[in-house]
């Protein structure tokens, strides 16, 4: 059962660059107490390309073992289809994973037919539901409505989409023709707009800072309450969280709360002093 909200978790590191296992548990325990039950590990916010498969597996297993009623999504994929398939096959052997978030191959800009063949191969090897990850700003390619519909006609495991970027027709058209296809808003600053277009939920970065507020927006959307003030607050936090390359600002804010160290793996680095001064203006609890 997929959750309406998945928090795109950062991957905490110690000063020596190793995975901060205690910090990871501390962060998730805080979010769990706030009512969050869906967690994504190894995504963009989790510095997925800089994680080993063993680190991803440890985080997924730890979530499942320590918090039995959570749903765990794990980020997979690269610009090498063979490597992507190897990763999925390794993760297929691990218990406690509910879905794969599979990013479009980046940098090499495959055609729509190339993307189709790539995801067809992923579907054939996976034993779990697959959420497509459409993020053109980072990968240089986009999934079209026609391609997604073609995949839905010819695959068994592809059940949803994380949509990033301004493509309003994509969400609207897909929900109109495939109402059971799950669409997650992947941009915190567009969450409310995407919900109006038909999105079912969110894969959110800022929810690890303001989880209750994001969860409340998603729940209150169903009842049609006045959502603009809450949406404005989420947009404001999102603006700060993307002042520099993500997840650097988010990690800085989490370190200020005393939850993790302000450490990233190269080529990502901590925020500049100027950005840190701006982030210090945010009041978080």
TrEMBL record:
CDD domains: DHDPS (cd00950). One of its GO terms (biological process) is lysine biosynthetic process via diaminopimelate. It is found in: Cytoplasm. Its main location: cytoplasm. The active site is at 133 (proton donor/acceptor), 162 (schiff-base intermediate with substrate). GO terms for molecular function: 4-hydroxy-tetrahydrodipicolinate synthase activity. Its EC number is 4.3.3.7. The keyword Lyase applies. Pathway: Amino-acid biosynthesis; L-lysine biosynthesis via DAP pathway; (S)-tetrahydrodipicolinate from L-aspartate: step 3/4. InterPro entries: Aldolase_TIM, DapA, DapA-like, Schiff_base-form_aldolases_AS. One of its GO terms (cellular component) is cytoplasm. Keywords: Amino-acid biosynthesis, Cytoplasm, Diaminopimelate biosynthesis, Lyase, Lysine biosynthesis, Schiff base. Belongs to the DapA family. HAMAP family: DapA (MF_00418). Catalyzes the condensation of (S)-aspartate-beta-semialdehyde [(S)-ASA] and pyruvate to 4-hydroxy-tetrahydrodipicolinate (HTPA). Homotetramer; dimer of dimers. This is 4-hydroxy-tetrahydrodipicolinate synthase. It comes from Candidatus Fimiplasma intestinipullorum.
